[in-house]
Write the structure tokens for this entry.
Amino acid sequence: MPTQHNSVIRIIAFCLAVLLTQVQTRGDEPTYAQIQPILTKYCAGCHNANEANGDFALDDYEALFRGGEHGTALTSGVAASSRMIQYMRGTLQPVMPPEEEPRPSPTEIDLIEKWIDSGAPGPKGQGAPTTLSVPKIAPRTNQRPITALSISKNKLAIGRYGSVQIQTLNSEKPAQTIKGITGKVTSLRFLEGDQFLVAGTGVTGLYGEAILIDLTTLQISKRFRGHRDLVYSVAISADETHLATSAYDRTSVLWKLDSLEPVARFLGHNDSVFQNAFDQSGKRLLTASGDATVKIWRTSDGVRLDTRNEPLKAQHTVIVSPDGGSFYSAGEDNRIRKWKLESTAPNQINHLSVSRFAHESSIQSLQFSPCGGFLFSSAANGSIKIWNPETLTEIHEFKDLPSNIQAFALTDEQIIIGTSKGQIQKINWSEQKQSVKANSPVNTKVASNVPKTLSDPKSLPNAAVESEPNNSLADANIRSAPFTTTGAITQPDAIDQDLFRFHAPEGSRWTIEARATKGSQVDTHIAVLAADGKPVPRVVLRSVRDSYFTFRGKDSTQISDFRIHNWEEMHLNELLYCNGEVVRLYHYPRGPDSGYNVYPNFGKRHAMFDTTPIAHALHEPCFIVEAHPPGSTFPEIGLPVFELNYENDDAATQEIGTDSRLSFTAPHDGDYFVRVRDARNFGGDQFGYTLSVRNEMPDFKIKNVIGKNPKLALGGYQRLGIELERIDNFEESVQIEIKDLPPGVNAIGPVEIEQRGLRAFVTLHATKDAKLDDNAENAATLVATAELNGKRIIKESKIGKIELVPPLKLSVALQATSNAGSTLESSDAEITPIPEISIRPGGTSTAEISITRAGHQGRVNFGKEDAALNLPFGVYVDNTGLNGVLLPPDKNSRTIFLTAESWVKPCSRLIFVRAGEAGNPCSNPIRLTVLPKTSE
């Protein structure tokens, strides 16, 4: 018994000792307040309420215990079996945090283990910490960096870390300081009346807030705290009822200024939201983010209306134009972009208007001048520029500014700059309001006026034979223009060139050609030199956007599938410079797996400014360019400027093979040289050529009749096309009609080939009871008519013999579904009134294709870029898709969308569609009218 009694006593004593030890130990156990900063520092960046990788968030105590897609993260009281510790120790893969990220030290992991082993006690009712446990580093200067500026009437607000200062503009009085701000002030906005100021601030990694400062008391009256990290931007609605905040935590929050409860949250960005802006109505909020997008939100419910993803890198700034019709953004990709602000409901696109490469470094801020007539931009390298907000044409650049600009604000007279050294600098910009703007782009026409007839191009006097030596300016053969001469590049072992001197009056326009003689091996290259032997400049091309070929190279003839980087920012009618060649963008890609078509959209491609079509390699650089007069200079933006001279290797239209053709306008009265050489610098006895220099004589001819000898189905429609060859820069419109058709056959027209256009199509219709005399020769004639310099030019061509065939197994109809009307073009009872559809530049209208199947049960294809025929340049079918406009076997109708670029001029066209199967039936034509552009 005594022994048993002693054992019991020893057991009780042991238990008391253990219990006492535990009580003493728990006094030293880690608390959640110690653990939470470690988890926030190393883990919460990827595991938080907004970005819960693996469905696991640990930015609050409850979420930590909910675990993720792999189950619980920790087991209270047993650290060794907790997945979180196993990931940190590397005993469970993958190691977390990832090896490329900062990792907790062994001591910190030991502390977390000890906390879990002690039962992982919670925060015991205390709120989330609002201070960081970091070492205190004393500043080396009393003047803290300026991080934000704002101006209202005669007051200037200056934001720094931990304070805001208020001072009177242009006054020497000391600034008043608002204290009680914990972190960096990132954004400042005055309320109307200057009684209140809103500041964006917060503590990195803990919280973000906007504070409302009462300027009469210099006290913080409200705190709008709704973010988990630093607030970068605050915006005030125009009626001053709402406040919007955006932050590093990738969210934006809408508040009522008279309440501290959030009205709406805007979730959807994948990176920090750097700036926000209300539209004038307050019904939309725009946000710019580090995820390289700008988003438009509806403020009433937080619904996203549109995402603009044209930017290439992070966007730092977004603003709305004073008239509310446009918005602008800029950022890390050095570009300013302008969009139309159009979306009022989801899925409405805000179309890109202009994209401009603007600075040589990242753009930090955009602001409108108080008057609204000028746009200002600032960049990381200290550059500030003024822009025309309509065209994004640069007006002026302020140079020699501090490279450490952190913020700027505007008055009608001054730019006020804040630097990282805490200094304020003022610059007078009012004198720049009258600055001469950058040179306006020139037209790609050789000249803007129609020349007088100086000579008959078929009769060239002064014919002569080249005399050697003539490979230097002093030895050049002298000719009296116009002239023709024969010669040869005869030196096989040395670079040979032949020079011919002639006189030209200022403004006179010439066509210069060098063609290989029969059997010659020469590949001619021609150039015009000034009297001093230097090349004569033709045009200066200023790059406004850079790009490169992203999919396959291009041969020298290809017009389709120009896949180029950042194509979404490019527009039809823009010029693309590719290694010396200049092409015009003619038709948009039909999606990411297709590319641009370039002018003329069929056949071999044409180059602009008499540049030579050449092959282009994959990844070869290219540039969107603007054309300016010779001698133009521009501010540096980091993109190249190209000067093109009067020279040509192969004719730009590719109509004469490897022979050369050049249009030359004499810039001044004087002597000029034509230089002829072999493009490869070859030479020999078989390298003969004929050179002609003649006065430019604009003209055209019918190059081809498309669909000659037409077969017409009774009761159906068929196309007949015409293709022109334009001679010597003839660019006028041409009217096309068909005369002398037999009874029962009608041509619905006339149709027009627009300026610079090369083809058009007439719709032929045969009545159901039409009959032809098979033994009679068809006299139907295609007539092309144009006017040039008051003179009427008429060209004719026979369309061949018409054949009537039975009705096809498919018939096609095209009907207007918007802005519709009708006109009657023919007295034939079988031809219904022609439907009408109208469209305005920058707008979209719809039409419906319908088919009647009379035996054809397969799919019906209506084409891709040519899904509708006779559309004016700049109007296109907007919903073709990669495979074009298709009707599958189970469908008999489809709506097409017709969209017009903003620059399309008023015109009227008869358009129709053509099926690719069952004998290629065409639809009835409808009249498309492009109306004048409405003033906004």
In short: The first strand starts at residue 148 and ends at 152. Confidence is low (pLDDT under 50) at residues 1-5, 11-26, 436-459, 824-829. Residues 297 and 304 are 4 Å apart (CA to CA).
